[in-house]
Design a protein that fits this description.
The protein is an alpha+beta fold. It is built from six helices and seven strands; from the N terminus they run E-H-E-H-H-E-E-H-H-H-E-E-E. About 35% of the residues lie in helices and about 15% in strands. Strand 6 and strand 7 form a beta hairpin.
Length: about 170
């Protein structure tokens, strides 16, 4: 969705941003928490993408699309998606505004697009059912549970000639 022309979004200063994030994605939740801890020059409001709140606040958005691509909406009707959303979010942060200005150049835009694509690939490879607060197991006997931390249980060795070296 392009910026809403009838509100003059191209001329309206951005005084606040709504960041739509996938609440089921651990990377998205981590970034939401990190952004929330940063000093903000422009206030950021975090709303789960596809939620009732998002649908009520932002009537004109394609809410299914917001679950697949980061979307940031300015209080004047501006809509930023993908790499532009990352850049405008950094622009809202005191310590990262200079970086946002560098990423808004043609060369920087390629880097911002690469970061957005890398995050999208990570999300694709780590769906919520695989990475969402449960236990994680490696084939070499190590496992991680958020409530107890890392534990090691050596793999069973039926032949008696098992390697004790690391698999990583």
């Amino acid at each position: 969705m392009a910026a809403t022309r009838d509100r003059g979004a191209a001329r309206v200063p951005v005084l606040g941003l709504t960041v739509l994030y996938d609440a089921q994605c651990s990377l998205c939740a981590f970034l939401r928490d990190w952004l929330g801890k940063q000093r903000q020059l422009v206030p950021l409001r975090f709303v789960p993408a596809g939620s009732d709140e998002a649908r009520q606040r932002l009537l004109e958005l394609d809410h299914r699309a917001t679950l697949g691509e980061i979307t940031v909406v300015g209080d004047g009707g501006q809509v930023y998606q993908g790499a532009a959303a990352w850049v405008v979010t950094l622009w809202a942060l005191r310590e990262h505004r200079p970086l946002a200005h560098r990423l808004s150049t043609p060369a920087g835009a390629r880097l911002a697009k690469g970061a957005a694509l890398a995050a999208a690939k990570w999300r694709e490879a780590h769906p919520p059912e695989r990475w969402g607060g449960g236990a994680y197991h490696w084939g070499d006997g190590w496992s991680y549970d958020p409530s107890t931390g890392w534990t090691y249980e050596p793999p069973a060795c039926e032949s008696g000639s098992c390697s004790t070296g690391s698999t990583r």
